[in-house]
Structure formats: C-alpha cells, structure tokens
Specification:
Elements lengths: L1 E4 L10 H15 L4 E4 L9 H9 L2 E8 L5 E9 L4 E5 H5 L17 H12 L4 E5 L10 H6 L3 E3 L18 E3 L11 E5 L12 H5 L7 H22 L11 H12 L3 E3 L1 H8 L2 H4 L5 E9 L8 H11 L4 E8 L13 E4 L7 H6 L1 H20 L7
InterPro entries: Glyc_kinase_flavodox-like_fold, Glycerate_kinase, Glycerate_kinase_RE-like, Glycerate_kinase_sf
Family: Belongs to the glycerate kinase type-1 family.
GO molecular function, one term: glycerate kinase activity
C-alpha cells in the first residue's frame, strides 16, 4: 500500500510538516508496512516557504529589511540551491502581523521590504523567484517593491513621492533608468488565491483596505490613487493590466508584479504542488490524505485540500480529508475529488484544547480511518 500525505498547516496549532507526521504515525499503527510519503503543502499564504523547504530539502535565508511602516524587520525567505529558486513570502517583510492593529495604516504602508527580499534573492543568483502574497499590510500597488528595485515615482516637480498608496494621487512620472537589469533575466511566479482587479468596487482598496486600517473616505482616495498609478504606467509601458485577474492581490502588488516583473499569476496551491512535485509523488498511490484547520465551501476558493484533490482526481486516486472542523456545505467538495472528510473531535471540546492536543487528535482520527479501510480489505470468509 502506498499513501501520500499532503496537508496544509492547522493555523495556530501545527505546521504542515507536523500535521503530516501525525497522520503518518496514525496510519502506521494499522499499516506498519505501508509506503508513506509525506509532502507538506500550502496555498501561497503563511507557511508556504516552510512547506516547500520541508518537501525539497531547501534552505532558510534571512535578510534585514524595512517593515510595512519602515521599521526594521529580520525577514526569512527560502532557497532551493540546485534549482536556483527563491521563495519569498511577502508576509515576512510586509505582513499585517508585523503591525499592531492600532497602528495599521493602508495609506502609508509600503512593500519596500518585499522588494529588498527580491534583491537578496537576485544577489544569491536566483533564476526564478516565487512570490507568495497572502497576509499583506499594504495598499501601495507594489510601488514600494518597485522602488527597492530602482524605480522612481515622482510628482509634477520631479520630487520623489513618500511611501504608501495614498501618495500615488500625486504621481506624475515614473522613471526606470535605475531599475535592476537582472529582473529581465529572472522568471517570476505570483502565487495567490486572490483574483480581484486593481481598482473599482471589487478592487484592492475597497475589498481589503478596511482590514489594513483604511477608513471609508480613505478607501475611495486609495482607489483613485491606484488608478492614477495604472494610468501613468499605461502611458509609460503601453499596457494596462489593472483589470486582470489577481491585479488586486496584496494591495495591488499583483498589478506591479504582472506589469513590471512580467510575473505569471497562478493559484498558490498549484505553485506549491509543482515545487513539491506532488503530481509525481502520488503516482501509483492507493490513497492521498490532505487536511486543513477548517474544511468548508470556502475550500473551493483555491485552498490546499481542493488543489490536492484536483491533482489526485486527475490520477484517479481517492482523497481523504482530515480537518479541525467541518464547516458549512463542506459536502460540496465531494464533487471535486474528495472521497470523504473527517473532523478531529468526536465530542464537545474548546478551541484551546483542540489546538493544544491537535497532534494526538490527528493521529487518533487517522488510526480510526485506517482501521475502517483495513476492515474493508478483509474478505468476508476471513471474518468467520
């Protein structure tokens, strides 16, 4: 029997690696001779680097950068030496978790630190850079990132604009004379599950600005400022990607990445699965086991179990989901490659208890599932 274990992390509880190990232990209690392959996964958000490095034996790197409000931050990024691939998690440098809720300010927060991580990757010799962009604190349309790479954003008097998205309402000129030439020789992948455009009622400012500290009036100003940036970009480059899928990801960084870095936009789980070679690992498997903290109809929006199920379904391999909780309409996933889904707890338990005992709960539930499968494999004559 061959089993591939490819879960996401359980937020605030266990990393994807630890979840995979707990599932493996539970399965081995019933099938000690099974071939088990663990492949920690993520969907482009927090934990993406850790999942890839765990599966690919990559390296952690560190770089001192500017945080969202200019504060010093020691950010981590991932490095695959053989492939010369860098994995940059935007949240490490420009994440909302780096700013206290009382200090969040979508008008002035900047992606400059994420650009500094790209520079570090280029200095290391990266041929490909994967940008995972969940959890940002910014709404500057990636202009901070571009500034770190050498672009200049000027007002009508040719003075540099201050950091942040709101300042873009005074944008008149963009100069690329000092833009890092290595960008042209580097492949960029933008990994995200946000498909919003840059501007408008479904754009970056309106949908995500409030959670980053923008008031209703500031949302309107930011939306207009980002539109100015798109206008000036179109005048400079002759292309307009503001309405493309994913342009509004990470406060509009998606627009900058697609336009100035020529980044390819792909779902986060698809990118992580490719890096982890999941499709290759599941060949010949009898079962694939995946999971996440909460499994519900939102999982359809590019979350890890959905992405894993799509790959397994193409290979005609059944998929089991183990989740912290089963939420509203989780059964909808049964139409998308999921064979069965199970929650961890069998009775009332507090969230704190569940988080503290997650590894044991996962192991126990996996053992239950494996015993059921073992029973189904026994011929009736063997039970008499």
């Amino acid at each position: 029997m061959k089993v591939v274990i490819a879960p996401d992390s359980f937020k605030d509880s266990l990393s994807a690696h630890d979840v995979a190990e707990a599932i493996a232990l539970g399965w081995q209690q019933v099938f000690p001779n099974a071939e088990i392959i663990t492949c920690p996964m993520a969907d482009g958000g927090e934990g993406s680097i850790e999942a890839v490095l765990a599966a690919c034996s990559g390296q952690w790197r560190e770089q001192a950068v500017q945080g969202p409000l200019g504060q010093p931050v020691l950010a981590k990024w991932g490095w695959l030496e053989t492939e010369k691939i860098a994995i940059i998690e935007m949240a490490q440098a420009s994440g909302i978790q780096l700013v206290h809720p009382s200090e969040r300010d979508a008008c002035i927060s900047s992606t400059f630190g994420t650009g500094e991580l790209i520079l570090a990757a280029l200095d290391a010799g990266a041929k490909e850079i994967v940008l995972t962009v969940g959890g940002s604190a910014t709404n500057d349309a990636g202009t901070g990132l571009l500034s770190a790479l050498g672009a200049k954003f000027l007002d009508v008097d040719h003075q540099s604009l201050p950091a942040g998205g709101l300042a873009l309402q005074n944008l008149a000129w963009i100069t690329l004379e000092n833009f890092d030439p290595r960008i042209q020789q580097t492949k960029f992948l933008l990994a995200a599950d946000v498909t919003n455009p840059l501007c408008g009622p479904n754009g970056a400012s309106h949908i995500f600005g409030p959670q980053k500290g923008a008031s209703p009036s500031q949302v309107l100003e930011l939306d207009q400022a980002l539109s100015y940036f798109a206008d000036v970009t179109t005048q400079l480059l002759g292309i307009d990607r503001r309405n493309e899928v994913g342009a509004g990801a990470a406060g509009g960084l998606g627009f900058a990445a697609k336009t100035y870095l020529k980044a390819e936009f792909r779902s986060g789980v698809e990118v992580i699965a490719e890096l982890n070679q999941l499709a290759t690992k599941i060949q010949g498997a009898d079962w694939v086991i995946t999971g996440e903290g909460k499994f519900d109809e939102q999982t359809l929006n590019g979350k890890t179990p959905f992405g894993v199920a799509q790959i397994a379904q193409a290979a005609n391999i059944p998929v089991i989901v183990i989740a912290g909780t089963l939420g509203q309409n989780y059964q909808a996933l049964y139409q998308h490659g999921i064979t069965a889904a199970f929650s961890l707890t069998s009775g009332p338990i507090s969230l704190e208890e569940a988080c503290q005992n997650a590894a044991e709960l996962i192991r126990a539930r996996t053992t239950d599932i494996a015993r059921l499968i073992q029973t189904s494999m026994i011929k009736p004559s063997q039970t008499q």
